[in-house]
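Thread: "does anyone have the structure for this chain?"

Original post by V.I.:
We have the sequence but no experimental structure in hand. Need at least a predicted one for the grant figures.
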Amino acid sequence: LMAGAELVAKALESVGARISSALTRAQRPAGSVRLVAVSKTKPMSMILEAYAQGQRVFGENYVQELAEKSKLPEVPADVQWHFIGHLQSNKCNVIAEVPQLAMVETIDSAKLADALNKALAKRSRPTPLSVMIQVNTSGEESKSGVLPSECPGLAEHIHRQCPALRFVGVMTIGDPDRHVTPNPDFAELVRCRAAVAAALGVAPESLELSMGMSGDFEHAIEMGSTNIRVGSTIFGSR
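Reply from O.Q.:
Generated one for you, C-alpha cells below.
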C-alpha cells in the first residue's frame, strides 16, 4: 500500500511542477489555476493519499459514486467536490444532497439549470452553488454541451432565473486527439467566454475557463485555463 501512496505523492509533485512551469511560460502568477484531481472509480484511500499531499479539490463523474464517497465519515471537512460528468435533470436531488459540493461544471441546458436550482432551493445551502456551462467546442454530435452560440443565452438564464446557482465560467472536454497548437477547442472556449462576458456585462477575466486534462493541461494553462481536470496522471489509469 505504501508504494501506492508514494506514487500518488510523486505524481502530484510532478503535476505541480509542470503547472508552475506552464504558468511561468505564460507569464501568469503562481496559484492562478486550480487543479481538480479526478478521482472517479478510485477508492477513498487514494483520495486521502492525495489529500495528505495538500490536494483539496476532487472531481467525480458519476452521481451515485460521488453521493456515496462524499458521505463517508473519513472525508476531511475541507475537501471540495467538483461534479464533472454528465448530469441528468432527474439526478439533481441526489447531487444537491452531496456534502461539500463546491461546483457543477457540466450545465448544458436551461432545463438542467432549472432542475438543479429547484433541488438546491429546497435545501438550506448557505451560498449559491458555483456552476459552469459545458460547451461543445468541437461541434461533434456525440459530445455533451451547448453550442458556443447558445452559451450567452444560457448564462443569462442562470444569472437571472436561478438564484441558487452562481454562474462562474465555461468548460470544455474538447477532442483529446486534436494535437494542434493552438488547440482549436481551447481557442473556441476563450472566444465563447468573451461572448458570455459581453452578454453579462462583465470582464472576460472575471469568468473561469475549465479546460485541460492529463494529456494537454500545460497547453491549456498557456491558453488561459483557470481550472484543469487531471486524473490518470495522478492516480494511474483505471
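V.I.: this helps a lot. The mean pLDDT is 94.
O.Q.: and The beta strands are 34-38, 57-60, 80-83, 101-107, 129-134, 165-171, 208-210, 227-230.
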